[in-house]
Amino acid sequence: MATDTLVRRTPAHSTARPKKQALGLGARMRRNWQLYAMLAVPLLWLAIFAYWPMYGAIIAFKDYNVVDGILGSRWVGFKHFERFVESYQFWRLLKNTLILHVYELLATFWLPILLALGLNMARRRWYRRSVQLITYAPHFISTVVVVGLIVVIVDPNSGVLNQFLGVLGIGPIDVLSNPDYFRHLYVWSGAWQTMGFSAIIYLAALTSVAPELHEAAIVDGASRLRRLWHIDLPAIRPVAVILLILNIGSIMSVGFEKVLLLQNTLNLQTSEVLDTYVYKLGFASQVPQFSYAAAIGLFRSVVGLALLVLANAFARRFARSSLW
Fold first, then answer.
1. Number of other CB atoms surrounding residue 59 within 10 Å
2. Which of 51, 222, 266, 287 makes the best surface tag, with the fewest CB within 10 Å?
3. Pairing label, strands 74-75, 62-63
4. Residue 324: CB partners within 8 Å, gap ≥ 6?
5. Strand, helix or coil at 63?
């Protein structure tokens, strides 16, 4: 009689490898210290030039004087904010700042998009590269040089603009001295300078579009305009929305250097904005009003932050794209 053999079955060994224990922050920093060393320099710059100056914003709530210093100066609360809101300059400065930035936003926001779409649809590589070079180059010209070129071009005596108008039988026009021309001069010269470089972001977004989408659309008989509308534009819409939000957030701050350089006593009616007014109060006046200037600057920053939050909320609700 054969005896039954008892076989002891051992549990099967698991093939899954044990999970590695997560490294702590210190271990990760020691392992990748080169990356953190590279990050240290921009973080140090950010701390010194972006966050540390925020400490000085408290002088907006004080009657600051150099002798007592920031901490020793007397607290006055919202005195300087109330003074600015009640001053006769408030509405003029606010109107000039808003009109200039909104005009710039409406006139120039769509230009880089059109340029990027046109370059993306261009078939000849040499043509595309030539246009890119010509449109990118003005970005690398300093603001001072750009203003110098503007002054030379619109000079009422020897400028190219007035020479051309003279050929047409139109008398010389002193553009820089006329407040009606200041906003147009500022906005469209800025469009010429920044349009090409701003298009880089949209060109980068267009590279994410799969070529198969265009090939399928061509097979279906879609025209070039149809493909642009249904394929290219949806690809760059999230990027355009984010850039629009950022532009709205900076609506209370315009290009200070360019406005100041184009400004003169004859066009102050439209060229005086919050940035230049703060500069004149804090540094260019015979008796600097540091606390008053800081209050105006802080007011501008708070309004800009509020507009940024509102624009982000609208974009998240209606465009399904936002910063946060």
1. 21
2. 287
3. antiparallel
4. 312
5. strand
The whole-number average pLDDT for the span 62-81 is: 89
What tokens appear for 135 in the block? 């449109």
Q: Which residue has the tokens 């004087």?
A: 65
Looking at residues 21-28, what average pLDDT do you find?
Answer: 74
CB 272 within 8 A of CB 179: no
- 202-221 tens-digit pLDDT: 998 888 888 888 888 888 88
CB atoms within 10 A of CB 250: 13
Q: Which residues contact 299 (CB under 8 A, 6 or more apart)?
A: 81, 84
Q: How many residues does the chain have?
A: 324
Which DSSP helix (H) or strand (E) runs through 75? strand 74-75
Residue 261 in tokens: 């350089």
Distance CA 42, CA 21 (A): 31
Q: CA–CA distance from 315 to each of 89, 307, 320 (Å)?
A: 33, 12, 6
- Quick one: tokens of 312? 């982000």
Joined together, the tokens standing for residue 187 give 């906005």
DSSP for residue 82:
H
Cβ-based neighbour number of residue 151 at 10 Å: 14
Token duo for residue 243 = 């850039």
* DSSP states of 280-296: IIIIISSS--HHHHHHH
Distance between CA atoms of residues 311 and 315, nearest Å: 6
pLDDT of residue 244: 87
The identity of residue 182, as a single letter, is F
CB contact burial 88-107 (16+ within 10 A = b; e otherwise) = eeeebbbebbbebbeebbee
CA 175 to chain centre: 28
User: Which pLDDT score, from 0 to 100, does residue 319 have?
Assistant: 73
